[in-house]
Design brief:
19 helices, 62% helix, rod-shaped
Length: 265
Amino acid sequence: MTDNPRWENLDAGLARRLRSALTAGYDGLFQTFQDPAPEVLRAGLKNPNLAKEHLLALLKRRDLPEDLLRTIHRLPQVEGGHRLKVALALNPGTPGPLLLSLLPHLYLFELLNLCILPGANPDQRLAAERAILQRLPSVELGHRLTLARRGTPALLATLLQDGDPRLVETCLSSPRLREVALLQFLSGPAATAETISMIARHPKWKNRPNLRLAILKNRKTPSIWFTLFLPGLRTPDLNNLLTGRRLTPARKQLVTAGLRRRGQD
């Protein structure tokens, strides 16, 4: 017979683990938080010996139910514990509303880690990404360069629009940069002769037909790229350039001359 009526109908093993969770010492609580039963974990949260170190160990688990994570968030240890807020935000089981309440407490590169963390779920990544984008206007150049080296495709696309040549150069070397971001940049007002030439000469991007065409459509593109790129364009692309409204008369003459060399009138 048990000494507590609440445990009379419990499996003997589970009852023993619940008692241990409530009474374990500092070291014993680490073992408690490896238990597979959520009710044992909840009991451990009521243990008077509970410390931040136990919670950090518990939050490394990827199988915690949402209600348990909400309970952890309400604990006094979390209120003043930055590392615990980060650990909660990084846990893939943390529900969306709770995650959104945590993100303002995270530092910039903690948000970035959440964006690129292999175990993060898509909702976490998207929320962290949006939080970074909201902060970008006040982020100094050095930190922007780090974001350009490590950031997600969406972050890179936004950083490109800054137009700073140092940022553009760093973004161009990122394996996460997408061609569509460069096409948007080349058609926008932030592109300059210098940054256009960076794209035009970059070994990863210079031979892409769509980018070459976008480069030649930009009014700020140095004339040298017409000389180098026109011979390699398809005839339909040359006609496309010629009918567009972005070329100056002098550059239209270059395109027309290219067509004539191909036997086109």
